[in-house]
Write a structure and sequence with these properties.
192 residues, seven-stranded mixed beta sheet, 5 helices
Amino acid sequence: GGTKNYRIRTDLNLRGGDGMITVFPYVEINGVFTLPDETVKAVLYKMVHDGTFQIVFYEGMIKSEEDFLKLLKSKGNYPVFVYADGKIQGLAWLNDLKDNHATGHFCVFRESWGKTAREMGIEVLKYWFSFKNGDKSLFDVILGVTPSEYKPAVNFINEIGFKVLGEVPHVCYNAFPGKRGAATFSYCERFT
């Protein structure tokens, strides 16, 4: 017999799009991550193509596919991919876990802005707030730091229930224009 050609699944679809929002953890189980690297790379390409990459990774630290994979796979980051109608429409991750809080990061593809973005963000928060340590909730608060110049991102965090504390000037270095700007600091208290 001949050799078989295998096609790695790189599309951004989940079987069965029934109008539901699905939060899909990206974790390692028995040495294998829950999504193949090619699918994760396809998400990166989608972010670059729709302009959300520069918003989420404004500091310029992610320069390659390998950097992106390393970030999502690194210990201390807890990423999820968010499906709407069976298609990946964004991702989010937690890091900087301390005591009863962590820092949240969100990316919603432009095609979901004004449509399913709010519901996607709320489902991610519900998922994070469902984490337990024994019988106690692991998190009471999710923190956020958002470049103030990205008004849609600031509006998004407001829409999903974050309370804005205010702006601090010169905190965010944005590598794409090569300048510093204000950061909007916010938090979301557990609501589940």
